[in-house]
Amino acid sequence: MHPAFVYTASRIGVLAVTAGVLYLLGLRDPFLLLVASFLVSGVASYVLLSGQRDALSARITKNR
Questions:
Q1: How far apart are CA 3 and CA 8, in angstroms?
Q2: What is the pLDDT of residues 26-39, one digit of tens each?
Q3: Which of 46, 41, 39 is nearest to 16 (CA)?
């Protein structure tokens, strides 16, 4: 499977899980939920998806 698809799908999944958890924790305002979800999932993705990010980077540099 193409690394770009895997990385993008993983980022969307982390964003959805983060939004769900924040909603369950009581963050009900849609705008604040969206902003907080993007911030928290960005940090989580940086830590959790480093392998997928490296695979995507290697694939991009290999095709040059």
A1: 8
A2: 999 999 999 999 99
A3: 41
